[in-house]
Amino acid sequence: MEPEMEIPVTTKPEKFVVSKNADSFFSGIYNVYVFIGRFFKEVFSRPFEFKEVINQCYQVGYKSLPLVSLTGFITGIVFTKQSRPSLSNFGASSWLPSLISIAIIRALAPLVTALIAAGKVGSNMGAELGSMKVTEQIDAMEVSATNPFKFLVVTRVLAITFMLPVLVLYTGFIGMIGAYLNIHANELTSFTAFFKSAFGTISFLDIFSSIFKATVYGFTIGVAGCYQGFYAQNGTQGVGRAANLAVVLSMFLIFLEEMVIVQFVNAIR
Amino acid sequence: MADKKNIQYDDKEPVISIRDLKKSFGTLNVLNGIDVDIFKGENLAVLGRSGSGKSVLIKIISGLLKPDSGMVKVLGQEVDKISTAALQQLRLKIGFSFQSSALYDSMSVSENLAFPLVRNRRNLSTKEVNAAIESVLNDVGLSQTINQMPSELSGGQKKRIGIARTLILQPEIMLYDEPTAGLDPITCIEINNLIVKVQQQYNTSSIIITHDLTCAKTTANRVAMILDGKFLTTGSFEEVFNTEDVAVRTFYDYNFINSK
Ligand SMILES: Nc1ncnc2c1ncn2[C@@H]1O[C@H](COP(=O)(O)OP(=O)(O)O)[C@@H](O)[C@H]1O
Ligand SMILES: [Mg+2]
C-alpha cells in the first residue's frame, strides 16, 4: 500500500471550471446590459447621425431584398405543398389559404426573415466593426473627435431595428404570392378568392404582433452584431470570432424572444 | 534630406507635461512612473522593446486610455480630468498616426481625408474641403491616389495618407506610433523625411514611438528610452547612446547589428 499523500493546506484549490464559465457568462450579460444602456443614452443625444442611419438602412434593408425575396417565395411554395396532403385527407383543401396565411404572417415570415438577417446582417456587423476595431480604425475615429459608438453602433442598431419589420412584411407578402401560385396551379383558386380567404383569417393583432416581433428581433441582431464587433480582440482571429458569435448569439436570443412573445400574444388573443 | 529643427529648451512652456504616470492592466505594471516634458516644436523619440508600453503611453496622452495615477497635461489641460467636450476639442489639436495606419477601409482616400474635416468644421464649403484635401495630399506627395481605396495602397502610402488625415486639422501635436515598422529601408527614409517636414512646415511638437534607431536619429531632437515602465535616460541621440549602461548598449547593439 502506498503511503498517504500529504495535502498541502496552504495552496488554494483550483477554481472550478464551471464557476469560471459562469463568471464570464454573467459578466457577459452585464456588459451587454451596459452596452444597451449606452445605446439608449446616445441615441437621444446630439449630434444625430441621420445621414449615416439612412446609409445603413440602405445597406441592411435594400441589399437584403434579393435574399429574403427568394427565401420568402420558396417558403410559401414549400409550406403549401407540404400542408396540402394532410388537409386533403380530411377533404379540407379549401382551408389551405387560411392555414397558410396564418402560418406565414404569424410565424414563418418574422422567424425566417430574422434568421436570415442574423446570418447576413448580424455577421456582417460583427465582422465589419471587428476588423475596424483590431486595425485601430475605431480608435482613429475616437481621436479625430467623432464618437465611434454613435457613428458606428447607434446607426447600425437603429437601421436594422427599422428595416427588419419592413423586410418581414415584404417576406410575408412574397410568401403569400408563392403560396397563391402553388394553390392556383393545383386547386385553380382565383386570385381574389385566395386573398379573400387568406386575409379573412388574419387579424390586426396578427400583423401588429409580427411587426412588434420584427422590431425586437432587429434590435437584438443589431446589438449582438455591434457588441461582438465593437469589443473584438486578438487580431484577425478575433474578427472571425466576432462574426460567428454575433450570429450564434442573435439566433439564440431570437428563439428565446419568439417563445416569450408568442405566450403573451396568445394570452391577449 | 530635410534637417530637423534646432530647439531652444530654455524659457519654454512644455506642450506635454507628464509626472509620475502609472498604468497597469490587471497585475501587469506597464508604466511605472514616467516623467517627461515635451517642448514647443520639439520631436521626442521614445525607444523601447515591444511590449514595453510605448503605445500605451501615447494612448494615454490622446485620452484613449486612462492613467491609474500621475499627471498628464497636454496644452495646459489634464487629459484625464477634463469633460468629454473639452477632450474632443483638445483632440482636434492632436494628430495620431497609428501603427496600422487605421485608414477607414470602406472609404476612398479623399473620403478618409474629408472625414475629420467635415465632421468637425461643419461650416466649410465643398470647395474648401477639396482644397484642403489637395493641399495635404500634396504635402505627403500622394496627389495621384486621391480616388483610390486603402486596399490599393502600399504600406508606406497608407502610412502617409494616415499622416495626411491628421494634418488636415492642422494639429499642434503629432503622435506617431511606430511610423516605420514593417516598411522597407527606402520607404523608411521617406517617412522619416516626412516627419521632419511636418515638424518644419506645420510647426508641430511630436512624440515618435519607435524601435528603429535610424528613425530616432534622423527625426528626433531628443531621445528617451523606456525600460521597466520608466524613462531610463533622456537626451540627444548621442548622449543617450554614448553610455556604458548595459540595457541601453544591448538595445543599441541589437538594433544596429541585427538590422544591418
Ligand atoms: N487595452 C489593454 N488591455 C490589456 N493589456 C494591454 C492593453 N493595451 C496594452 N496592453 C498590454 O500592455 C503592454 C504594453 O503594450 P504596448 O504599449 O502596446 O507595447 P509597445 O511598447 O509594443 O507599444 C503589453 O503587454 C500589452 O499586452
Ligand atoms: Mg506598440
Give me the strand/helix succession of chain B: EEEHEEHEHHHEHEHEEHH
Describe the global form of chain B: globular
CATH architecture of the largest domain in chain B: 3-Layer(aba) Sandwich
SSE string of chain A: HHHHHHHHH
Which percent range fits the helix content of chain B?
Answer: 25-40%
Sheet/helix structural class of chain A: mainly alpha
Molecular structure report:
The complex is a heterodimer of chains A (269) and B (260). By secondary structure, chain A is an all-alpha fold. Chain A has one domain. Helices cover 82% and strands 0% of the residues of chain A. In chain A, α4 packs antiparallel against α6 and α8 packs antiparallel against α9. Chain B has two domains: 153 residues, 3-Layer(aba) Sandwich (Rossmann fold), CATH 3.40.50.300; 68 residues, no CATH class. Chain B is 38% helix and 25% strand. Chain B is built from nine helices and ten strands. Chain B has a six-stranded mixed β-sheet with strand order 6-7-8-3-9-10, with helices on both faces. A four-stranded antiparallel β-sheet of chain B has the order 2-1-4-5, covered by helices on one side. The two termini of chain B are 21 Å apart. Classes of the chains: A mainly alpha (269), B alpha/beta (260). Chains A and B meet through α4 and α5 of A and α2, α3 and α5 of B. The complex binds adenosine-5'-diphosphate and magnesium ion. The site of adenosine-5'-diphosphate (ADP) has 11 residues of chain B, from β2 and α1.
